[in-house]
Design brief:
The chain contains ten helices and 15 strands. The chain is of the alpha/beta class and 340 residues long. Helix 4 (180-189) links the parallel strand 8 and strand 9.
């Protein structure tokens, strides 16, 4: 094993720098991963632009990480072996002892690192990870395919599972970007009548090819009224942070319908009590998922042929990849290739 490794860290808000660091040894219950691929996610913006300059050494971002275990810390469960392909998502591993963990809600653990934010992430050749946060990667998936599934994939997969919709029901996906393009694929393969909702006609053909039965362009029609004319959506999965756009769709929910929120915007949603009470509609926030749920999403992706659409860049071009993602110059997902 090399004494040093390359990493991209945040020297000051918005500035990424390629550096050499000393290769760390995993601590108790940790593993050292040789990173093969790391997705560049929209959530990285907050980690990079609002970095704490007091953190030393500077933080390494990235939370869609796939690689191989190269070293084990003490008391690592025997489930994990040197050479094994693993991944780590946004949630860095539950503690197992807090109130939420004791209830089995591991994704809500109160003592869990956020990878790339409160602990170093995967814009690097090496990464330390909690064993409790590891996800086993199927052989059928390339590293660059698996990486986005550990965030965009599991987030949308879990949202659809929580939607309450059954096969044959209408499910709408608001926002056809990095998350939305995964949601369309999963929703189609789960047996829903899939409606994609976006802004502009340029994405229509691709939305249909990804699995949508119908594309609604909000520049041309009232999406909520269109959904109502179809009997309403049993579920609407919102992947965007625009409160106004989400609020405008509420009338399109069917009675007993559920709105699942993935986009975490700051503005409050405008909703009347009558919209919820009459028809017994509901809202639900959904975070990514536990390592076990991530493995379900990966396995479902293999079984049904769901794959993220990705553009690849090497680690040394991380700053370019990040700027392009931030500017919206990537159609779906950007992934950094690191090593094999």
């Amino acid at each position: 094993m090399k004494a040093t490794y390359r990493a991209v860290h945040v020297t000051r808000p918005g500035i990424l720098e390629l550096v050499e660091r000393a290769t760390p040894a995993p601590g108790i219950g940790e593993v050292l991963i040789a990173v093969q691929a790391c997705g560049v996610c929209g959530a990285d913006v907050g980690d990079i632009e609002r970095v704490d300059p007091l953190v030393q050494p500077p933080r390494i971002p990235g939370h869609e990480v796939v690689g191989r275990i190269v070293a084990l810390g003490q008391h690592t469960p025997t489930l994990w072996k040197v050479g094994q392909r693993v991944g780590v998502g946004r949630l860095g591993g539950p503690c197992g002892v807090c109130a939420q963990c004791r209830q089995g809600h591991f994704q809500l653990c109160q003592d869990q690192p956020f990878v790339g934010s409160t602990c170093d992430g995967g814009y690097a050749e090496m990464m330390i990870a909690r064993a409790s946060g590891l996800v086993s990667i199927p052989d059928e998936l390339h590293a660059e395919e698996a990486a986005p599934i550990l965030c965009a994939g599991i987030a949308t997969f879990n949202a659809l599972k929580k939607s309450g919709a059954q096969a044959g029901n209408t499910v709408a996906v608001l926002g056809i970007g990095g998350l939305g393009h995964m949601a369309l694929q999963y929703a189609r393969r789960m047996g829903f009548r899939v409606v994609a909702i976006g802004r502009g006609a340029d994405i229509a053909e691709e939305a249909l090819s990804l699995g949508a039965h119908l594309y609604i362009d909000t520049n041309e029609v009232n999406a909520a009224q269109m959904l109502k004319s179809m009997g309403g959506a049993q579920a609407i999965v919102s992947t965007i942070g625009s409160a106004a756009a989400v609020s405008a769709l509420i009338e399109g929910l069917a009675p007993l319908g559920r709105l699942i929120l993935l986009g975490a915007g700051k503005d409050p949603l405008a909703v009347s009590a009558g919209q919820l009470v009459v028809g017994e509609r509901s809202f639900l926030g959904s975070i990514t998922g536990s390592p076990y749920e991530s493995e379900l999403a990966l396995d479902f992706s293999v079984l049904t042929g769901v794959r993220p659409k990705v553009e690849l860049m090497p680690l040394e071009r991380a700053n370019e990849a990040y700027e392009r993602m931030k500017s919206g110059d990537v159609k779906f997902r950007m992934v950094l290739t690191v090593g094999r």
